[in-house]
Amino acid sequence: MEMINLTRPIAWNSTNITLIRENVSAYDSNGRWIDGPEDETPIAASVQPLKPNELKDLPENRHSEEWVKIYTSTEIKGVSVNNQSQPDRIKSKDKIYEVHTVTNWDDAGGYYKATAVRVGQ
Asked: Whole-model pTM?
């Protein structure tokens, strides 16, 4: 069965936001940790608050935080233990959100769906 490409409907409901990605960090020659520089890239995405029934999937101690879901055709990266990279951050309406989970629907629908939590509440 052929999947429907949802890139266009997502674009219709999108606004311009900023994707903030930290480049590779490393230790310097003196053994000090140096954070990699950040790249800020404008992307189109639909940012929506999580519904009450979606909050149940979060850890109980995180329910009171401001969570959003993000739909975009741009690849975004969440928390990863395997490659030890920092998650992407999203700036939308002067608020910064840290991406936690990402579902890759690029092959099946032409988009990525992510959940993110507001930073500095």
From this structure: 0.79
